[in-house]
Amino acid sequence: MSMRLSRVNGTFNIGVNAAVNESLAFIPPDAEPSFQTDLEEALGVRVYRTTVAGSHVPGSLIAMNSYGAAVSELAEESELEYIRKDLPVVLIPDRLNAAGNNILVNDNGALVNPEMGDSAVKELARLFNVEVVRATVAGANTVGSLCRCTNRGCVCTTDATDDDLAVIRDVLKVDVVRTTVNHGVQYVGAGVVANSTGALIGDLTTPIEMSRVSDGLGL
Q1: Is the overall model pTM greater than 0.85, yes or no?
Q2: What does the longest C-alpha to C-alpha distance in the chain come to?
């Protein structure tokens, strides 16, 4: 298992720029070759380069586990072809189209923005093949931006309450550790890309923060 610091397109918010599961990663077409290499070596994934809805932030617009991918409904068919090569896809309605920000999912369960409707929750449960629960973290609906989870563990904002952590443990079936990344940033999901094999963290992350991420993700 491997963990390393990384940066993409001039930003430490690497979680905004990459969506991953246990075997795949989607990154922007203009991402540096070094970032692709970091993903391949640290996470052991096959990397595809694509936009989503013309945007270069697939990490914000895709949420996926080993069974399927939830993607903004604004995505174009040519973009979805890359994803559908390997995974079933469900399109998220426009109002909550930032799937990566609004969904926290692993192969055991999923937490979603409480504003998601019943039909969307049922469809995501079928797609991900897990229980899907509406929840907030630290009083915020964007659970995916404040946390990063894998099948081995989870890390989330230090603002998360004990009740928040209890829900994460119950639904995702992993332990969870509070931390910041990138020298005090609370948006942990925006600063970490991870699966069960390894993790990349924004390159402003301190050694103490790295240790917490390593503990939380079981690396």
Answers
A1: yes
A2: 43
Q: Cα–Cα distance between 101 and 120 in angstroms, integer?
A: 15
Q: Which are the contacts of 64, defined by CB distance < 8 A and separation ≥ 6?
A: 19, 20, 21, 24, 70, 87, 105
208: alpha, beta or left, given left = phi > 0 and alpha = psi -120 to 50? alpha
What is the per-residue pLDDT across 205-216, written as a single tens digit (0 to 9) for each? 999 999 999 999
Q: Tell me what the mean pLDDT of segment 85-113 comes to.
A: 94
Collect all residues with Cβ–Cβ distance below 8 Å to 133 and sequence separation of at least 6. Answer: 109, 110, 111, 112, 167, 171
What is the domain partition of the chain in residue ranges?
Answer: 2-217
Please state, as a whole number, how many other Cβ atoms lie within 10 Å of the Cβ of residue 14: 28
| Domain covering 2-217: architecture | 5-stranded Propeller (3.75)
Answer yes or no: are the C-beta atoms of 24 and 48 closer than 8 Å: yes
State the CB neighbour count (10 A cutoff) for residue 138. Answer: 17
**Cα(113)–Cα(146) distance, rounded to whole angstroms?**
12
